[in-house]
Each structure stands twice: as C-alpha cells, then as structure tokens.
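Assemble and predict.
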Amino acid sequence: MKLINLDYLSANPVLPEVQEAMIEAIRTNYGNPSSPHQLGDQAAEALAKARESVAGLINSPSTQEIVFTSGGTESINLAIKGVALANAKKGNHIVTSNIEHNAVLRTLRRLRMMDYKVASVAVDENGRIDPAEVARAITDQTILVTIMHSNNEIGTIQPIEEIARITREKKIPFHCDAVTSVGVVPMDVQKLGVDLLSFSANQFYGPSGVGGLYIRSGTGLWPLLDGGVQENNKRAGTENLIGIIGMGKAAELAGRDLESRINHCLGLKKKLILGLQENIEDIFLNGHPEFSLPNLVSVSIQYIEGEGIVLMLDEEKILVSTRSACAAGALQASHVLLAIGRDFADAQGTLVITFGKETAEADIERFLGVLKTVVQTLRDMSPLYKKKV
Amino acid sequence: MYSSTVMDHFKNPRNVGEIENADGIGEVGNPLCGDMMTIYLKIEEETIKDIKFKTFGCGAAIAVSSMLTEMAKGKTVEEAKKITNKTVAEALEGLPKNKLHCSNLGADALHLAIQNYEDKKAGITRPVSKREEKHEHDHGHEEGGKCYCPYCNIEVKEDLPFCASCGKSLKTIQ
C-alpha cells in the first residue's frame, strides 16, 4: 500500500535536484567559507550563490539582508529577541497576535520574564487580524510588532501590507513569521514592507535544519550568538554550508515553479474541501475562505477526537496532523482554534491536512474514502455523537 | 508512542456500545478537555455479566476503556471495585506520562456505574454523571494572583476546571 503523506507541514520531501546539489557539495565543497584559500573561496562562492537564490525568492533588494540560521525557530528568536534587546532603552512593549506559532509565543513569554510587555491582538472567526486593532495596540513604548504571514494550523493569510503601513508610519520594526508561506505563496519583502521576515527551507522542499531571516538594512538587532563575524555579524558560527546549498537550490526551484505548484495545490484543495463536505456530516472548515494557503485544509470533525483519527489513518498508511506537530505532544486544545471560537471538544477533533507537489488527486480520493470509515467507527464509540442523534 | 497492547485495544476495542436498561451507568470526564467515558453494566447475582463503553477521547482513552471492560467482565461487584486506574494502566503495559490522565477516567467511570447500581438497589437517586464544568480555584493561588497546576507547574487559566497542560482536575485539590 502506498504511503500517502498529507502532513507536508511537518516535513516536506527534499526534492531530488536538492538532494543532488547537497550530495555533490558533501563530496566536493566541504570548505569553510571564512578560510582565505581556494577551498574556502569555493565554499564562499557556493554560499553567495545560495544567498542570491534565497534573496531572489523573497525579492530582497540585497543579499546582505539575508542571514542564514538553523531554521524557522532560530530566525524567529533572532528577530524578536534581537530587536527587543537592541531597543531595550527605547521601550519594552511588543505587539503580536493571539494565533502565533509557539516559536513566537514562547519567545515572547521569555521576554516577559525580562519585564517586556506584550499586547496580543485577537483575530476574527476566520483567523484574520484587523490592522486597526494592531494600530490601537501600539503604545509609545512599542519597539516591535510581530505578526505571522500565514497561520500554520488554519492557513489564514494576514493583511501584512496594511499592518506594515502602520508600523512604517510609526517607525516601529515589523517582524513577520513567514515560515509557512515562503516558497508556498509569492513573497516580496519590498511589497510587503516588513523589516524582518523568518523562513525555513523545509517548507519549500529543502532540508530541515536550515532557514533564514531577512533583515532590512538599518534595522537594529542584537545577535543571539556571539563569536565570529559570519552572516554580516548577525549570527556567529561556521555556516551550515551543505544545508544552505540545499536551501539555495530549493529556493531556486521554488521561484521557478511557484505558479504551477500553487495551481496544483489549489486543485487538490478544492477537491478535498468538496469531498469533505459531501462525505462527512457535522464538520467545520477552519480558516479564511479567500485569504488562505493553497496547500492547507483544517477541518474540525465533531464528536470525535483527533488523535484517534490520526492513529487509524496511520494504520492505512495515510499521514495527517491533528494540528502543528510541535504542539501534538501537548494535551491542551489548540490556542489557534480556541481563538477563532471553536469550543474545546471541536478543537480536539481537528485535522490539519497539508499537501504539495507530489500529492495526486488519487491520494485525496483515497484519503476521503478511508476518513469516512474512520470517522464513523470513532463516532460509533463516542458518547457525544449518541447524544446528538 | 503506545505499547502494542494499547494499540491492540485501540484498533480492536472490546465491548463498545451501550446496554439497554443497564443496571448501572457511570459517566465521567469533561467534554471541554476532550475526554468523556460512559460505562454500562448488566449485573446478575452481584456479578458483572456484561459491560459496554462509549468514549470520546484519544487512542489511550479508548484503549483504557476497552481494557477496563475486559478486566471487569465476569468479576463480582466487590472484585470490580478493586480495579484501579493504576491496574488498568499496568494491564496496558504502561501509558505515556502525558496520557496517564486518560487512564484516570476508566476506573472512575466503572466505580460510578457500580455506585449507580448500588444506589438503585438502595432506592437512592444520584447523578450518574461526574462532570466538572467549572474551575473553583480551591487549591490555593501563588502570589500575584496567578494560579499554577500543582502537578506540572504550568499556569492555568481562570475558567478551566483542569490543567490544560497535564489534564489533571484542579477542582478538588486542597
């Protein structure tokens, strides 16, 4: 039986061209980009090429504005803590939303321990932020606004350009966690107007363990790692050259194929949503119907609990997520689903289905068929379902 | 994550369903936190002749319900009272630490069903359901008004009757 991966959000497959580029680099390009000899020069050249590809993917005007990191989490930490520490004398107030990823929320929780204050803007029932609410939350002590580009659990895309207009006017740095968006939807930091943008290679078919942060020139930021002068003095430590080469290749391919990838995903998404609505009663689709990622569907299935669905689907070699994999070990209902008004029971019965380049229509069809059986099996066991009937 | 015994009971749950005119019914849990379990008993000559369950919950909660019913079936009422949450978890060859609260529901539901059976015999009317919908905050607060779960030390919200992190009930802790 073929394994059907509908959990691309946890891990994307690394594209063959990316694998080849990395294997070739392991064989021939093992130098340190900081070394002043030919092996170092070769490594530095590959690093520069990757930086160019990544800068191109997000339309950064200068490769100097790209800092390579160990992934989305580090990028987010560097952006938020880096700006907060650099601006500690100016103020101690940060504005965010109540549906951010844990990498943002826990970074902010840490800063709260250091007497920073955080204002959290609520989202509407579709998970969208009203920019006017961001404007209202800003005080004369605000030193950073951090709002995600798209949500990793419900896929809603935020009005980032409008928020950036507000932060620019008030001269407040604006960080955007775009980990689930870069390489998935068009991304243009100049058009968006953000000052910092976090991303990760494994969301666009690159390797895990490598990511980047766009930092607009002139944005004050303290590094988290001190040591050498790598990454424009923003992130010390010898670069993960092989991973970065992989990310560079993945960025190049994402730039080239983005439109066809989006169209492919939109076709699958339409089929999946229709299939869910036709096959299974008592469901809610989560997220914004228009401003949403093309590769993600979040569905709350009433009267049953998500983990049971995931385990039963796994038996049938179909992989989905109850929500973000980072939170799956925790028992609490998703803060994102509670924020958009789902109750605890419905939040527990939510699946996040993500797919991509290698997902076929037949995969969606098989998933829908198996899901229907699984849902009925679990509902037959559920005391809540009985009460509804 | 789960032992093969847990997975076996999850995949092939025994005794799913309801018993019409059950002699005892016990319902525990809280739909708010995602786990609910109902146990139905048919008792003849003080022996559990049949037992069924309905559960809303994770893989562990379903496996606990299934194992519990297997353990209780054929036992006398007095023997069944001795089944504990710990013995159910042990029979399942252990549960992940963060899922132990699921096993806490199993024996509680059984004991409540037995109590319901004994209440009926004695002519006492008492609810068959033990649900906790409100967090009473009767377990003491830390300084500054913040309230932390005594089990896992995570801050708990004012309106929750359980710890959102470890799932333990907070209502009855003194």
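Confidence is low (pLDDT under 50) at residues 133-143 of chain B.
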